[in-house]
Structures are given as structure tokens and as C-alpha cells.
Specification:
single chain, alpha+beta, 724 residues, 8-stranded antiparallel sheet
């Protein structure tokens, strides 16, 4: 039987009076269908034990990391938080130096005094949710009647509500809509900004298998890292201070040492980022045929260049590890997303539902009036804008983002625009007008190699000019292209040799002398950045739609509304798209047969480290200590019948932002951390396949073994609450 896994939106459809009785909101939400399904699959908890605003339920131990870039959970009464290694990757990278390379060697704080403050790091606890639908809808309808809604109408509604309710609370508030405006909720968060790195395994454990195993199964990653959250003496959020103390959380997760087995109940609480499961067949086709091919080609070309330089120089490897990880993560996702969209015929599934939708619309004159042209307008609009969207994606993937030096050129060109607007005669390195560009550039150049960046620039310049017509390049790019007969390497060599943007030192040296706007614009990288206009590509898409007499984004919203109404009329369950607010997904531990004659077990063992070990391949190195511990079968209390398990899979439904989310058993105890999806789930942001989608999780016992046996940091385990 196929499984329907449903994200349940916290506090949805809850009358205010119900909040007085903890957990009643879940009874109201789950009584009809969801809660009984959870119990049938193995849930042993009452709704109020999963969420209540007093903070003593499971949700009180769940945190959004960096405003939803990842998820973490509290595992000690001294504010210890666990998340994924890849969520912490950027922090570990930024804290590393050639002398103390925490990315390569790992980091473990012997005492709380040794923990490393992470500048700009945040974790936030969800403290309250309020339904503001009536107020938001009234505001929206008024703006539409007055012709003031526009492109940023929804953001204006959010801003007004956040301003109104945010001024009289110690919490940060964030408004979000569900089902494209069917419901509006206001979320209250307690945000902590003194967060310190406590422990992380080396990359060869935390990211074992690297890009080659990414989005795959089986995997063997020890994908975890530890932070500690600090507050003032009363446990309240305050900026970093050496006098701050670890917080005492209202809820701490118990950690199960009993392991997982086929069929076990699992649920994941976290902050999934974005899904678009109300996407039309036309939008699916555009993603598959227009957008993803550009992303895949551009990012893989950049990856090849970066990998070559990283393998040639350990210093470059340290500088570019974070960039390479982020590039490969999305490039591989787009690759496998296309494979899944094609394999599952997602566009065909949408087309079949759209046929049903058209029949439903035709049933009443009111529906015909409101939705009658939706599908025809979408078909016409997407066809008209296809080439403009392709060009826009080449601009985004091959021009505006790849080269750090060119990005500095963009910032400096933007500064020139402000100079001319504000009638500033000249700028030098110490001037306030230059501070913004300089501060951003300093951080960027902290992980920068000129030779690597120049080669990336040349490759992406060729990709851009090969696929975008010259009339969209601007005058200066056309001039240098003609001067060097289209030789991208020669253009790059000229630009980098003669531009102040090529290094931070050259930039600061150039602006030691006051420079006028005209002088600055003679810099080749600044001139190249200014030559190609963002508006050219945005206007191209808009003009194509106007010629087709349609607005694709607005029509997609109307399509989603019609789809929602049809499903509602038929009594079909439907969850709101993920939007970085807290969600729950439930399911079971389950093995998989992804292809004919192929079957994968539901869990892997540490033997995979020995089988995959390759000293010549950076992504599959096993160091001597790990090798020795595995050979000795020194599992301590973390093994099961003489075996140490590493990762496991479940049929839970997750997406980006869920990274680091706790995987909980039927009693709400922590059994693992979600860190990946299998390749067969890569259509998940658009379409969740009920048979092939899996969540890849690190077994919490493997985490504990690494902390205990590999790192020798057993003091951290003493903080935790272990249960069988």
C-alpha cells in the first residue's frame, strides 16, 4: 500500500480558546485523519507532548539554525545543541586556519572556556503562533481594491503585521502565509545570538564520501556537529560576552541507545525551507527543460576548475572547500531532480490533474469566471518566455555570481552609481561611501585565490557569451570581446592584470588615492560588471509575458488557489508548501528497491569505511585512528550485537532546512539526525514519490561512538540523557 506522508502545520486551524489546554491544537488538527495515522504507525505520545506553548513538549527542544538554514535540537540542560556537520560546515571553515585546520582535523572543546564563538550565528526557539488570517486578508483585499497590491504586496502585509505585533514583545515575529494566502500565521521566536562551536568531527568523517556519495544511498557519513547556546544570567538572549552562561532550556531531548529497526516509527521535527507542490505542469516543464540544464552545466564547469586547483594546493583546498561543497550540493540536486522529474513523469501527473481541474472549473459559472483562463494563460505565458528565462539563468549562473573578483566589480560599480546620485566628487579607502563595498569584499577575499577565480571567470565568460546574444551584453563587454576576438582566456588575463578588484591588496592600494567616478569606471572588472544590466534580463522575461498578454507568477498563484479549492471540495488532504516554519513529518524506517533487481538495506555499518577507503581520493580517506578503532571493533556501549551502525533511511518527507532535524522514535526519543535525501527523492520539492523517496539519517549511536571513542570527549556524553 502506498504511504501518504503529510507535513502537519503547527498550530493550524486552532481556535484561541484551545490554546489554554496544552496540546488541544493538535487534537483539533489531527482528530480527523492525521493523528490516528501517526498512532497507527507507532506514535506513543499525546499531541500535547509534541507541541505546546509552555515549551515542555518536543517542539521546545527544536531550534532553527541561522533563521532556518538548518535545524538543531537541544540535548543537554546546559544548552548543548546538535545539528549536521554540513550545517556547521561554513562556521568550521571560517574558524579554520592553516595552523588549526578544524575542517581537516576536527574540533573538540575540552572545556566550555575552549568553545569557539561564531560571529553572526543564531539559533531560535518557536515560542508562540497566532492566527492573523482575518486581519491579513482584509488588508490584502483593500490593497487589491485600491490597486496598491503590486509585486511586493504580500511582503507589505507581512511587514505591517510584524510591525504591529512585534513592538510589544521580547520575541522576534515573522508572518507567513499558507496555501498561497488561504491562511496567515504570525510566529514568535526567541533568538539567541551567542552561539559557540563545541565539537565537530573532521571532514573525512562528517562528510565521508563527499560529493560522490552526496544525495545517495548507501552512505556512511558521521554528519553532526555540536554548538552551545549562551544567554545572560537569566537565560535571556544577549550579544556575545565572556560573562554569558549556557542557557537552561525548558525541554531537552532524551537520546535512545536502542537503535532503529525495519518498520520502526519515526518522525522529524524541523524547519523545511521551500517546496512548490502546487506547481503547474508548465512550470515543471520549464524547471526540467529550461532552468536545470543551465544550472547543471554552469555549476559543474565551476566545480571542475575548483577541484583541479584544490587538488594541486592544500591552501586552495582550505580556501575553497565551503564554496565547492555548496556548488556540488545544488548542482547534484538539480541533476537528480531532472532525472526524477523525467522518471516519474511529474509533468504528466500534473497534466492529468489539470484535466480534472478543467472539468471542475467548468461545473459552475462562478468558477469559469474566476479560473476559466488559468490553464490557457499558463500554456501561452510559459511558451512565450522560455528563451528569456533561459538567458536570465545564464546571466545568473555564468555572469553575476561565479567570479568573486567580478562580484567586487559589481559592488564598486554600485558605489559609483551612489556617488553620481549623491554628487560625491571622489572616494578613497577611508571614506564612508567605500565602507560597504570594502567590508563585504574583505570577507569574500578571505576565501579567495586569484588564479582559481580568473580561470572560473574565463570559463563562465565563454559560457555566457556563447549562449546570450551580444545585444544583451552592453557596450563594454562587446568592445573587449571584439578586441580579443572572443578569446575568453585573453579577456580574463587582461581584466585581472589591470583591475584593482583582482585582489584585496590591489583594491585598497588603488583607493589610497581619491578616485573620481569616471576614473573608477575605467577599471576593466568594474566596467564589465556595469556593462551587463540585470534589468535587461528581468525586462526580457516581463516583455515576453506582456507580448503574450499574461503574468505567469500571478497566474500560477491563481492556479494554486483553484487546485486548492478543487481538492478541498473533494475532501482531499493537502499540506501547505514548506516555508521555513516548523513542520512535522511522520513515517517509518524502511529499506528500498530503487531499480529493477536492486535492493538496499535500511541501514549501513562502519564496515563501509574500510570498504570505501581510498588514500588517493580525498573524499574517501580513512585516517589511522579511525582505521585502528574499526579494526579493533571497539564499539563500547554503542554497538548492537557486535555491529556498529552508521546511517539509516526512513520514508519521511523532508527538504532543505530540515538538515540537522532530530529523527525521533514513537516515544519522542532521539535516534538520529536527518542529513540527506536519496537520489530517488530529488523531485521532492515539486513531487514526493511515496515509494522511492527516503530520508538519510546518521544513527545517533554512531555519533556517540565518535564523540566517545574517536574524539575522547566523553564529558559531553555525560551531559546527555541516555535511555534504552
Amino acid at each position: 500500500m502506498k504511504k501518504i506522508l503529510i507535513y502537519a502545520l503547527l498550530a493550524l486551524l486552532t481556535p484561541a480558546s484551545a490554546m489554554a489546554d496544552e496540546g488541544m491544537w493538535l487534537v483539533n488538527l489531527f482528530e480527523s485523519s492525521i493523528y490516528p495515522q501517526m498512532k497507527k504507525k507507532g506514535l506513543k505520545l499525546k499531541p500535547g507532548e509534541i507541541y505546546n506553548e509552555r515549551g515542555t513538549a518536543l517542539s521546545g527542544a527544536i531550534v532553527a539554525v541561522d533563521y532556518g538554514m538548518g535545524t538543531g535540537s537541544v540535548i543537554s540542560d546546559r544548552g548543548l545543541v546538535i545539528t549536521n556537520h554540513h550545517v556547521a560546515y561554513g562556521d568550521i571553515h571560517d574558524l579554520s586556519t592553516p595552523e588549526n585546520n578544524y575542517l581537516e582535523n576536527g574540533f573538540w572543546a575540552a572545556t566550555e572556556q575552549d568553545e569557539l564563538p561564531v560571529k553572526g550565528k543564531t539559533v531560535m526557539f518557536l515560542r508562540r503562533i497566532a492566527d492573523v488570517t482575518d486581519e491579513a486578508v482584509e488588508m490584502r483585499d483593500s490593497m487589491i481594491r485600491e490597486g496598491k497590491f503590486g509585486v511586493f504586496g504580500t511582503r507589505k502585509i507581512y511587514g505591517a503585521i510584524e510591525k504591529k505585533y512585534g513592538k510589544d514583545t521580547p520575541y522576534e515575529v515573522s508572518c507567513a502565509s499558507m496555501w498561497r494566502g488561504e491562511k496567515y500565521l504570525l510566529f514568535y521566536y526567541e533568538v539567541y545570538k551567542d552561539v559557540r562551536l563545541v565539537g565537530a568531527p573532521p571532514e573525512k568523517i562528517g562528510a565521508f564520501g563527499g560529493n560522490q556519495d552526496n544525495w545517495g544511498w548507501p552512505q556512511h557519513k558521521g554528519d553532526f556537529a555540536l554548538y552551545r547556546v549562551y544567554g545572560d544570567k537569566d537565560g535571556k538572549p544577549v550579544p556575545y560576552s565572556k560573562d554569558n552562561v549556557p542557557i537552561k532550556p525548558a525541554k531537552v531531548l532524551d537520546i535512545s541507545t536502542g537503535g532503529v529497526h525495519e518498520g520502526d516509527y519515526t518522525m522529524v521535527l524541523g524547519f523545511p525551507g521551500r517546496t512548490n507542490r502546487y506547481m503547474s505542469s508548465f512550470a515543471v516543464a520549464e524547471k526540467q527543460q529550461v532552468v536545470n540544464p543551465v544550472v547543471i552545466r554552469a555549476r559543474h564547469e565551476r566545480m571542475e576548475i575548483i577541484k583541479k586547483h584544490m587538488e594541486a594546493d592544500p591552501k586552495v583546498r582550505l580556501l575553497y572547500s565551503d564554496k565547492y561543497f555548496n556548488l556540488s550540493n545544488y548542482a547534484d540536486y538539480a541533476t537528480w531532480e531532472n532525472i526524477c522529474l523525467r522518471r516519474y513523469d511529474v509533468a504528466g501527473i500534473r497534466e492529468a490533474e489539470e484535466t480534472e481541474l478543467q472539468r471542475w472549473i467548468a461545473e459552475t459559472p462562478e468558477r469559469q469566471t474566476e479560473y476559466g483562463r488559468v490553464l490557457a494563460d499558463l500554456k501561452k505565458g510559459y511558451a512565450a518566455r522560455a528563451e528569456a528565462v533561459r538567458r536570465k539563468n545564464y546571466f545568473q549562473e555564468a555572469w553575476i555570481s561565479p567570479s568573486d573578483a567580478l562580484m567586487t566589480g559589481f559592488r564598486v560599480a554600485s558605489m559609483v552609481n551612489r556617488m553620481r546620485k549623491e554628487k560625491i566628487d571622489s572616494v578613497r579607502v577611508t571614506d564612508k561611501a567605500f565602507a560597504y563595498a570594502l567590508n563585504l569584499t574583505k570577507k569574500m577575499y578571505a576565501a579567495y585565490d586569484p588564479a582559481t577565480d580568473q580561470e572560473i571567470f574565463a570559463a563562465m565568460l565563454k559560457l555566457f557569451t556563447d549562449n546570450v546574444p551580444p545585444q544583451m551584453w552592453g557596450d563594454y563587454l562587446q568592445q573587449v570581446y571584439t578586441r580579443y576576438d572572443g578569446n575568453a582566456e585573453a579577456i580574463a588575463d587582461y581584466a585581472f592584470r589591470n583591475s584593482a578588484c583582482a585582489t584585496l591588496e590591489k583594491l585598497c592600494e588603488y583607493f589610497e588615492t581619491p578616485r573620481t567616478a569616471d576614473q573608477i569606471m575605467q577599471d576593466p572588472l568594474v566596467a564589465l560588471a556595469a556593462s551587463v544590466s540585470t534589468m535587461t534580463f528581468s525586462d526580457g522575461v516581463r516583455n515576453a509575458e506582456e507580448e503574450a498578454e499574461t503574468d505567469v507568477d500571478k497566474t500560477e498563484s491563481l492556479y494554486a488557489k483553484a487546485l486548492y479549492r478543487m481538492r478541498e471540495s473533494k475532501g482531499l488532504p493537502q499540506y501547505p508548501d514548506a516555508n521555513s516554519t516548523m513542520r512535522i513529518t511522520f513515517g517509518n524506517v524502511e529499506s528500498i528497491s530503487p531499480y529493477d533487481a536492486v535492493k538496499y538495506d535500511f541501514r549501513t555499518t562502519v564496515d563501509g569505511y574500510i570498504e570505501k577507503n581510498d588514500p588517493e581520493d580525498f573524499e574517501f580517506r580513512v585516517d589511522d585512528k579511525m582505521f585502528s578503532l574499526i579494526r579493533a571493533k571497539d564499539w563500547g556501549r554503542w554497538g548492537e550485537k557486535g555491529v556498529l551502525y552508521t546511517d539509516f533511511i526512513t520514508n519521511n518527507d523532508i527538504t532543505g532546512g530540515n538538515s540537522g532535524s532530530p529523527v525521533l522514535n514513537g516515544r519522542g526519543n532521539l535516534v538520529g539526525l536527518a542529513f540527506d535525501g536519496n537520489r530517488e527523492s530529488m523531485s521532492g520539492d515539486i513531487y514526493f514519490h511515496p515509494e522511492y523517496a527516503r530520508t538519510v539519517c546518521v544513527d545517533i549511536r554512531f555519533v556517540l561512538w565518535i564523540i566517545d571513542r574517536y574524539a575522547g570527549a566523553s564529558g559531553l556524553i555525560e551531559e546527555m540523557r541516555l535511555v534504552k
